[in-house]
Specification:
With 335 residues, this protein is an alpha/beta fold. Helices cover 42% and strands 17% of the residues. The chain has a 7-stranded parallel beta sheet, with helices on both faces. It has a two-stranded parallel sheet with strand order 7-10. Strand 2, helix 2 and strand 3 form a beta-alpha-beta unit.
Length: 335
């Protein structure tokens, strides 16, 4: 049951993968959601529109097409809708894309985040929950990754912008008393996912008989985290703003599966679900990649009682089922 003291939630990036699932959960629980998304073409816009269409079936959903880097649009949302909670999930994602298109990351992830912080500042928001990333840990060799670990050596611009978000949120919490919580997501996967993610592109290529690029010969480990587990973590954190007695009012949590899986095993699980073997193109490590991601989620469990529960097999089967049905419904062979 949702918190009756909270009615209005502002969710950024609502047509994105995580944003869509969080928005749908909030709407199902009875909240009023105002959402923004610029519907950019970083990946297939039709997928974003299909997600959005589901959300627009709810009477309590209000969508604004716009860019968080637009200061006036963001300010007007805070003024008109007066959100009590902000769940900030909009960002330019992707480690590799940041190498070839860096300005997009500064516009969205830094300048856009500043606009969100300013809106929270002037609207006296009760809690800002924002997306960070496991990428901030860089090439950290200490595992599992803990929120207490130093994160001063990002190996991609994307990671640098996410670490900048954490520092900006900290300073705004300190200066203006804004309760804020950063969530470092670890390799989120599942239905309605992003086509630029490896598991999504692998599924497409395997079904079409194309070779998949497997970096470092698959000798990489990722803390694959199923989308429903991520959403559950977001919901629990949303209702847990940093204690007013603690200054600054800022916390960070890892949201991961706490069970890193080798990419080779992940591919095998995907092959089984698809009923087809992959043609592999083994390649060396790519710039910006890290050998392992592994989340220490003890703090999340201690404060919320939550731990992820979806197995890799179950999660992959759910994704494959959705993927095939989505292709059929679209009458298309590609995304």
């Amino acid at each position: 049951m949702y918190n009756t003291d909270i009615k209005n939630i502002f969710i950024t990036g609502a047509a994105g993968f995580i944003g869509f699932h969080v928005s749908k959960r909030m709407l199902n629980e009875g909240y009023s959601v105002v959402a923004i998304d610029n519907l950019n073409d970083y990946y297939d816009v039709n997928l974003k529109l299909a997600r959005l269409k589901i959300l627009q079936d709810f009477d309590s959903f209000h969508f604004i097409k716009g860019d968080i880097a637009d200061r006036q649009i963001v300010a007007s949302i805070f003024t008109e809708f007066k959100p009590e909670i902000v769940i900030h999930l909009a960002a330019q994602a992707g480690v590799r894309y940041s190498i070839i298109n860096p300005y997009t990351y500064i516009d969205s992830n830094v300048y856009g985040f500043l606009n969100i912080l300013e809106g929270c500042r002037h609207a006296a928001v009760k809690h800002l929950v924002y997306a960070s990333s496991s990428s901030v840990y860089g090439a950290n060799t200490k595992i599992p990754f803990s929120v207490d670990d130093p994160v001063d050596e990002p190996v991609s611009l994307y990671a640098a912008t996410k670490r900048a978000n954490e520092l900006m949120a900290y300073s705004y919490s300190h200066l203006y008393g804004i309760p804020s919580t950063g969530l470092r997501f670890f390799t989120v996967y599942g239905p309605w996912g992003r086509p630029d993610m490896a598991y999504f592109s692998f599924a497409k290529k395997i079904l079409e008989g194309e070779a998949i690029d497997v970096f470092n010969h698959g000798d990489l480990k990722r803390d694959f985290t199923y989308i429903d587990d991520v959403v559950e973590g977001v919901v629990k954190i949303m209702h847990l703003p940093p204690n007013i007695e603690n200054k600054p009012l800022h916390k960070i949590y890892n949201i991961g599966n706490n069970q890193p899986i080798e990419v080779n095993e992940f591919i095998t699980t995907l092959e089984t679900a698809l009923g087809k073997k992959a043609v592999r193109n083994n390649l060396p490590m790519q710039a910006g990649d890290v050998p392992i991601t592994y989340a220490d989620i003890d703090a999340l469990g201690k404060d919320t009682g939550f731990r992820p529960s979806t197995s890799l097999k179950e999660g992959i089967e759910n994704f494959v089922g959705w993927y095939k049905s989505y292709l059929d419904s679209c009458g298309q062979k590609e995304i």
